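Please check this protein record:
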Amino acid sequence: MDLHRGFIREGVSFKETVDPLVALDFAIAQPGPIIFLFKDLSSFWENNPFIIRKLKAFAAGAKLKSLIVIGEEEALPDRLREDFVILYQGLPAIAEIKAHLESLKTLVPSLARSCAADSELLGRLVVATQGLYLPDVERTIRAFNQSQVVSGKEIIQVLFETKQQIIRKSGIMDFVANDADLDQLGGMENLKYWLERREKAFGLDNISSGAKMPKGMLVMGISGCGKSLFVKVIAAQWHLPLIRLDMAVVYGGSFGSPESSLRKAFRTAEAIAPCVLWIDEIEAGISSQGFKAEGGAASRVLGSFLTWMQEKKAPVFLAATANAIELLPAEVLRKGRFDEIFYVGLPDEKAREEIFRIHMKKQNINPSGIDLPMLASTPKRLSGAEIEQVVKSAAFEALADKRPVVEQDFLVALSRTVPLSVTMAEQIKSIDAWAYKRAVPASGKYNR
């Protein structure tokens, strides 16, 4: 049954059954055995007690009759949950994807030629296609002109863009355009070491394809010290798409209850896997204080989050960042939830010098006439974001005077900067004390 033609049986349309209530009366009156398929019913039952009552009557009196409703699980009213069995349509398995691509080679000559020119292309396409339904794959492949010469890179890029569309349509998450690389990170030796060891252990190709994927990591620390940048570096280094989940949207109510929104976000992430799922400022949505403020909703969100972390099979690397890790419940921090918990503090003198070089390069500033060790050794403990602003301020002053940047421009910018280490000295001291022996420092030395 649908709203356009009502019930159809053996090619005959019963137009009078386009109304949902009439259609349910029709179904109840029919003798069994029979199966009814409703395509649009879920659009009407949310606030309609008449439909809910008729469905419960069908469930109570149906003999040798079954009713199938196609729709979203979140739309199922609570009163009907005991009468329905919820089944999820799974994504195609790797073997199905491979068989479908093989069949498409006979229908799309450009795909066949591309696979003939590159013997490994089919395997890469299988990886790129994971998380898409077969009709989406076919539409994407058929979009290429039959006569044009198509490179495997072009096909994979278009499949990747299809996955981006899935993220945008979800509304809950953002696709993060990412061009970060390790050269943009100053300091953070231990984070870089962790990344290097995982690549050696699992193999970069295995990680990128999702065949072997670490579980995830939690990066906490002071704002402006590079937590978000490192998450971007992970995704770029492993050649994985990066999607960002905003916990404020989860609790906003625009996409249903917080727990249903979170489940939708997780299913979307699994649909485009392998990928990196970035939860920024995780304590804003999952915190001990949130239980007191939000009550049952916060507890259910925590339960959904922990269950997904424990049970997920899809190659989704969870990268969470936090400014106030002490707000997170102990259940999130216990060993086994994340592969590692790192603390990113204010950069030391060596790291500050590296960060100065990185941002000077971005601004096309020649460092040869500038005493970088002197700038880095300033008594002010600047964060990476503050160093970036100092470099930009120096470049702006020189540009306004239409002259090259000189060392004095940096000294003036430094003198005008009041860093977080001064304005939030007590809070930073508290964070440092909490992280001591509770998290692995991102920089410096620790027992490996």
